[in-house]
Automatic annotation (TrEMBL):
PANTHER family, A to Z: IDURONATE 2-SULFATASE
Xref: SUPFAM superfamilies: Alkaline phosphatase-like
Gene: betC_2
Positions of transmembrane segments: 70-91
EC number: 3.1.6.6
Keyword Phosphoprotein part of the UniProt annotation: no
Protein name: Choline-sulfatase
Family from the record: Belongs to the sulfatase family.
UniProt entry keywords in alphabetical sequence: Calcium, Hydrolase, Membrane, Metal-binding, Signal, Transmembrane, Transmembrane helix
Cellular-component GO terms for this entry: cytoplasm
Length: 560
C-alpha cells in the first residue's frame, strides 16, 4: 500500500519507547531515537497520521501498527525506513508497554551444519553419538522427521534454499552462487535485509569449499548483497596439529593426513577455537550481543561434520573405533541398484576395510559432537542476550550422509540417508512437537518470511509450512523432490522413487519405505507395484513441470 503524508500531521506527533522525537521533513517522517539514530519513515497513512508512537522499528499511527524497514547506510548509523505493512492493534495496549516486546519483529537465527545425517543425532535416535545441545533445541521446537534437501551436495542444495528455487529452475547443479540465475530477485537473507533486518552470515551459508576454502578463509560462492555484513572463519582443517590419519585410499596406512575432499581424521591438539567452527560460534555469539536490539537474520554455518573429521582430541575420546557399529552388510545389496545409483564413494573404491570404516564413523561422530558443542554456545548467547523469546531458531543441514549403508559413504546418493536432513524450527510461543509431514528445505524461505510477518513473494517455489508448527499433523506436500545431477528422487510418505536421467534411461528404483525403510529391495520390476510405479512416474512428470513453471525464464540472466 502507498501512503502519503499530510503536513498537518507534524503538529500532533507523540513519541514513546525508544523514540526521542518524531518530525516531518518534507515527505519523510523522521524518528530520532534516544541513541541519536535517525530513522526516516518515508510514508505514513494519509488518514491517520495524527498520532504516531514509535516502538523500536514499529510506528503506531492511530491504531495501525506499521512496520518499518531499516536499512543501514555507511558507518554513520543513518537508517531509512519505509512503511511495509499495517495491522490493526490497540495502540493503548502497546502504550502500556506490556506488549512492546511481543510486537517487535522476530529475529531469525539460522544454524546449518554441513554434511550432517540426522541419524548421527541423539534426538533422532542415535544412542552412541550424544548431541545434548541440538537435542535441547529439538525438545523446545518442532523436530521434522521427513525434511528433504533439494540437492544432495552443497552447491545445489544451498543455492536452492537460499534462492527459493529448485535446482532445475535455476539450472544450478554446480558450486556457484544463484545470483546470475535469479537476477535482481531477493535471496532469503536479502529479503529480510530489504525489510530492514540486519543480515549477517558467519562462515558457510552459500557454498564454500571444505577444507580448501576454509583453510584460505575465502568467501566461496557467496552472494555479497544478501548480507549487511559477512564473516569467514578460517581454520587449519587437516593441517591442525594433532594425531592425523588418512582413511581413504590408504590401505597400507602409510599416507599421512592429506587435504581435499577425502576421509581424514584428526584428533587435534588445543581447544575449540583452533578450528573454524569454534571461531564461527565465537563470532556468532558476539553478533547476537551486538545486534540484540535490532531485528536480525543471522546465518551461522558450521562446516563439521564435513570431512576432514577434525576436532579437539577430547571430542574423539567417547568414540573408540572398536565400539563403532557399522550398518548391516547384505549380500547382493547392489544387484538391484542401477549403475548410476552406486554412490561415488563406496567402501570398495575408497579401499576402506572394516577397521577403517569404524574409524570413519568414530571420526564423524567426534565431528558431530564438536559441532553440537558450538551450537550450544550460540544458543547460550541467545539466552544471555535476553532475546530467546523473540528469535526463531532453525537448525538443519544442507543434505544427509551415508555412514556405510549399502557400503556407501558421504553424500550425492539419492537414497534415504543422503536426501533426508535434520530440521528443527523453534518459534517463540509455539509448543514443542514432532512433525512427520513431508517438507523441503526450499520451504524455509517462505515459511520464515511468513512467521516474521514479511511478504511471501509469489515466485518462491517452496511453500509456507508454518501451519505445521501449530498442527504437526498437517500435511501440505504429497511428495518431496531431491536431485543430484544424474537422478531424481520423488518421495511420498510411503514410497521412494528414484529415476536416473530425466528419461529414466539410467534406470529406476522404487522402495516401500514402510516395509523396507533401509531400501534393500528395489520394486521396479515387481508386478504387484506396477500401479504404484505408474503413479510415482506421473508424480515425477508433474513435479518437473511445476519446477520449470517459474518466473526465471523471462530473465535473460537465468539462461547463464
Ligand atoms: Ca555439504
Amino acid at each position: 500500500m502507498k501512503f502519503s503524508v499530510k503536513p498537518r500531521a507534524s503538529q500532533a506527533l507523540k513519541t514513546r519507547g525508544d523514540a526521542h522525537a518524531v518530525k516531518l521533513e518534507g515527505s519523510w517522517l523522521v524518528v530520532y531515537s534516544k541513541r541519536s539514530t535517525r530513522i526516516q519513515a518515508c510514508t505514513v497513512c494519509e488518514d491517520c497520521a495524527n498520532r504516531v508512537v514509535s516502538f523500536g522499528c514499529f510506528v503506531v499511527v492511530n491504531r495501525v501498527v506499521v512496520r518499518m524497514s531499516l536499512v543501514r547506510i555507511g558507518m554513520a548509523g543513518v537508517v531509512i525506513c519505509s512503511v511495509l505493512c499495517g495491522g490493526l492493534v490497540a495502540a493503548d495496549d502497546l502504550a502500556s508497554g506490556q506488549t512492546e516486546s511481543a510486537r517487535r519483529p522476530l529475529n531469525v537465527l539460522f544454524i546449518i551444519s554441513d554434511d550432517l545425517t540426522l541419524n548421527a543425532l541423539s534426538c533422532y535416535g542415535n544412542e552412541v553419538c550424544q548431541t545434548p545441545n541440538i537435542d535441547a533445541l529439538a525438545s523446545s521446537g518442532t523436530r521434522f522427521t521427513r525434511a528433504y534437501c533439494q540437492g544432495t551436495y552443497c552447491g545445489p542444495s544451498r543455492a536452492s534454499f537460499m534462492s527459493g528455487y529448485y535446482p532445475h529452475a535455476t539450472g544450478i547443479l554446480g558450486y556457484i552462487s544463484p545470483r546470475k540465475a535469479i537476477g535482481d530477485r531477493a535471496t532469503w537473507a536479502q529479503h529480510f535485509k530489504n525489510f530492514g533486518y540486519y543480515t549477517s552470515r558467519v562462515s558457510k551459508i552459500f557454498h564454500m569449499g571444505v577444507p580448501g576454502g576454509i583453510e584460505k578463509g575465502d568467501d566461496g560462492a557467496d552472494d555479497p548483497i544478501s548480507w549487511t555484513e559477512r564473516f569467514n572463519s578460517q581454520g587449519p582443517e587437516w593441517r591442525a596439529p594433532g594425531k592425523g590419519e588418512t582413511l581413504e585410499n590408504n590401505p597400507d596406512g602409510k599416507k599421512p593426513a592429506v587435504g581435499g575432499n577425502t576421509f581424514v581424521v584428526v584428533q587435534a591438539d588445543g581447544d575449540d577455537l583452533v578450528h573454524s567452527d569454534g571461531r564461527t560460534a565465537e563470532k556468532a555469539c558476539q553478533l547476537i550481543h551486538e545486534h540484540k536490539d535490532e531485528p536480525f537474520f543471522l546465518g551461522v554455518g558450521f562446516v563439521r561434520p564435513h570431512v576432514p573429521f577434525v576436532a579437539p582430541a577430547s571430542y574423539h575420546e567417547p568414540f573408540p573405533e572398536a565400539e563403532m557399529e557399522l550398518p548391516e552388510k547384505v549380500a547382493g545389496d547392489w544387484d538391484d541398484i542401477p549403475k548410476l545409483g552406486i554412490n561415488y564413494k563406496t567402501s570398495k573404491n575408497m579401499k576402506m576395510n572394516v577397521q577403517r570404516q569404524r574409524k570413519a564413523v568414530a571420526g564423524y561422530y567426534a565431528s558431530v559432537a564438536y559441532m553440537d558443542a558450538q551450537v550450544g554456545k550460540v544458543m547460550s548467547a541467545l539466552q544471555q542476550a535476553g532475546i530467546a523469546d523473540r528469535t526463531i531458531v532453525i537448525f538443519t543441514s544442507d543434505h544427509g550422509y551415508h555412514l556405510g549403508e549399502h557400503d556407501f559413504w558421504a553424500k550425492v546418493s539419492l537414497h534415504e540417508e543422503s536426501v533426508l536432513v535434520p530440521l528443527i524450527i523453534r518459534v517463540p510461543g509455539k509448543q514443542p512437537a514432532v512433525c512427520e509431514s513431508l517438507t523441503e528445505l526450499i520451504d524455509l524461505y517462505p515459511t520464515v518470511s511468513s512467521l516474521c510477518g514479511l511478504e511471501v513473494p509469489d515466485r518462491l517455489q517452496g511453500i509456507d509450512i508454518s501451519g505445521m508448527l501449530d498442527d504437526p499433523e498437517l500435511e501440505l506436500r504429497e511428495t518431496a523432490l531431491s536431485v543430484n545431477g544424474k537422478g531424481y528422487l520423488i518421495r511420498s510418505q510411503r514410497y521412494a522413487y528414484i529415476r536416473y536421467r530425466e528419461n529414466a534411461s539410467g534406470g529406476e528404483e522404487l522402495f516401500d519405505m514402510q516395509t523396507d525403510p533401509l531400501q534393500y529391495t528395489n520394486l521396479v520390476d515387481d508386478p504387484a507395484y506396477a500401479a504404484t510405479l505408474k503413479k510415482m512416474r506421473s508424480e515425477f512428470a508433474k513435479t518437473m513441470q511445476r519446477v520449470r513453471d517459474n518466473d526465471l525464464a523471462a530473465s535473460p540472466r537465468s539462461k547463464n
